[in-house]
Amino acid sequence: METYTLSKIPSCKPIIIPIKAKDCRSDHTSIDADAKTLKDTFKQLRYAEPEVFNQDSDRDTILNQLLEIREKSEFTEDADFLLCVIISCSYMNGCFQDVNGTDISVDEVIHIFNTENCKGLRGKPKIFILQTDDLSISTHEPGKFSNRGEVTRLPTQADSLIYHCSIPSSIERFPWSDSVKQEKKWNTAQGSIFIYTFCDEIRKERGTDIHKLTFKVNASMKGTGDGKEDDIKLKQAELEMKERLEMDKKEKEGEFKLKELEMKLKELEMEERLEMEKMKIEMVKKKATLKSSRNQIF
Predict the structure, then answer these.
(1) Helix H or strand E segment including 8
(2) Residues 118, 135: contact at Cβ < 8 Å?
(3) What pLDDT, on a 0 to 100 scale, did the predictor assign at position 240?
(4) Is the separation of the CB atoms in 194 and 167 below 8 Å?
(5) What pLDDT does 148 receive?
(6) Fewer CB within 10 Å, N side or C side of the chain?
(7) Which parts of the chain have pLDDT scores under 50?
(8) What pLDDT score was predicted for residue 196?
(9) What start and end residues bound the annotated signal peptide (predicted)?
(10) C-alpha angle 251/198/15, rounded to 5°?
């Protein structure tokens, strides 16, 4: 498993992007509660004051603001890691909506801070937390989306972890919600169950490895499902995570070997240049010796 060296008190200036899409049927009060929970949690963790985007930001504003953030050292060079939380809604996996309902790919956001585009975050963890209410599952039965909170990995993005939950915050508003026991219903005044649980686990499990933390969050959230079914899904998620970590490790080893090979090629090039320079010097010496011999003759 990849490990990172952090400061005793990790330095981080979080980014919070809470978007209230105009045509989104999710509970907007939940977004406000999520933003407050996140700010309170980050303060308790002694992180810097988070950068909070306007809730009515459109696609261009969001992406341009992220590009500006990339150039600020407090988010990159001076930070131990990047932490970006996005709260919105979506009809499409791997996307979230701006205020006008326009889709923004998560990959676009991550691309801004990847190794090639952001030198200040090279070799540092980049964590992206997403709560996007999936608007397409409002008519589904409860068991149909009990596993929708999952860890997603994009193989092309080194050092990045995406933790994405698309369970809507306002489940009790769905037609079938009457079948859910009162004690299991979620109060949206607390925000989304995912953000609330994530922050709660962070506070309780400070210093815990991020991958283990995601398992704990999944375990805490499984009470809203069917019990045994969720246990099986959690075990499957753990196995998938182990496989992803192995793939990450192989990618890292491949990158290291490639860099090693590039260094050796550079060394060989330098040796060849030195040999050529030596040959040139020898030729000059021979010419000088020959010229001296001719002068002595005459």
Answers:
(1) none
(2) no
(3) 72
(4) yes
(5) 44
(6) C
(7) 1, 138-156, 173-183, 225-229, 232
(8) 85
(9) none
(10) 70
Q: How far is CA 131 from the centre of its chain?
A: 13
Q: What are the backbone dihedrals phi and psi of residue 127, each rounded to the nearest 5 degrees, phi first?
A: -110, 125
Exposure class string for 135-151: b at 16+ Cβ within 10 A, else e: bebbeeebeebbbbbbb
Note whether 99 and 60 are within 8 A (CB).
no
d(CA 63, CA 108): 8
* The predicted structure's pLDDT at residue 145: 42
Whether pTM > 0.85 for this model: the answer is no
Partnered with residue 165 across adjacent β-strands are: 131
83: tokens are 């932490």
Q: What residues pair up with 163 in beta bridges, in sequence order?
A: 129, 151
DSSP 232-255: HHHHHHHHHHHHHHHHHHHHHHHH
CATH number listed for the domain at residues 15-225: 3.40.50.1460
Contact 131, 34 (CB under 8 A): yes
Please, what is the angle between helix 193-204 and helix 210-221, to 10°? 130
Comparing CA positions, the residue from 111, 145, 155, 109 lying closest to residue 130 is 109
Q: What are the residues whose beta carbons fall under 8 Å from the beta carbon of 79, sequence distance 6 or more?
A: 11, 12, 13, 120, 121, 124
pLDDT at 156: 41
Instruction: Indicate the average pLDDT of the chain.
Output: 76
Q: Is 89 helix (H, G, I), strand (E, B) or coil?
A: strand
- Give domain limits for the chain: 15-225
| Nearby residues of 178 by Cβ (< 8 Å), 6 or more positions away | none
> What are the C-alpha distances in Å from 108 to residues 4, 103, 127, 142, 160?
25, 11, 14, 31, 13
Residue carrying structure tokens 């989304």 = 192
**pLDDT for position 187:** 62
With the CA atoms of 97, 108, 136 and 202 taken in that order, what torsion angle do they form, in degrees rounded to the nearest 10?
Answer: -90
